[in-house]
Amino acid sequence: ATCGHGCKYGECTGPNKCKCFPGFTGKTCNQDLNECGLKPRPCEHRCMNTHGSYKCYCLNGYMLMPDGTCASSRTCAMVNCQYGCEEVKGHVQCLCPSGGLQLGPNGRTCIDIDECSTGKAVCSYSRRCVNTFGSFYCKCQLGYELKYTSGRYNCVDVNECVTNRHRCNLHAECLNTQGSFQCKCKQGYQGSGFDCA
């Protein structure tokens, strides 16, 4: 295969027949191909023809993605939210995965809401509120323990007198109360119950 006029930006594939490299056109592949004029257009927003190639540009507020498309520079990927985000009408907002978390001052990270101190948590009388990150749980009050009775878990009074969890004096009687206990000095002794003389 010989090409009398040569193939400037291509290769000779047959008698005076040129196969042009990408970005070039013409009988001898000596003309630059204006990719910006092609249909469909190679760029989403702005296109600039260059020698043998082209460049894509995006309008203000957008950035060029690797595939040549233009993405809003306010997309979730750019905002860098801690847990996730949503785009609503071009506006990006970070999200928190639970109702027990709220967006921090930077608008990207989530901070804990203390449901126990804000009064959002409601625990039954025998339970106390314990705050956790993003939530809370109700723990048995001091003097109560969690027991499985009648097919469910309940906080049941601990009988400190039976379990020897009391600090009553040797000469005192232990009296169990709901959630606690009392010490009473035995007959012939007097004092607080913790001290008997």
From TrEMBL:
What InterPro entries does UniProt report for this protein, alphabetically?
Answer: EGF, EGF-like_Ca-bd_dom, EGF-type_Asp/Asn_hydroxyl_site, EGF_Ca-bd_CS, Growth_fac_rcpt_cys_sf, Nephronectin_domain, NOTCH1_EGF-like
Q: Name one Pfam family in it.
A: EGF_CA
Q: Which UniProt keywords apply?
A: Calcium, Cell adhesion, Developmental protein, Differentiation, Disulfide bond, EGF-like domain, Extracellular matrix, Repeat, Secreted, Signal
Enumerate the subcellular locations listed in this protein's record, separating them with semicolons: Secreted, Extracellular space, Extracellular matrix
List each copy of the EGF-like domain by range: 32-71, 112-150, 157-195
- Gene Ontology biological process terms, A to Z: cell adhesion; cell differentiation
Q: What is its main location?
A: secreted
Listed GO MF terms: calcium ion binding
The record lists the membrane-crossing segments as none
Q: Which PANTHER family match?
A: EPIDERMAL GROWTH FACTOR-LIKE PROTEIN 6, PA14 DOMAIN-CONTAINING PROTEIN
Q: Which family does it belong to?
A: Belongs to the nephronectin family.
What's the protein called, per UniProt? EGFL6 protein
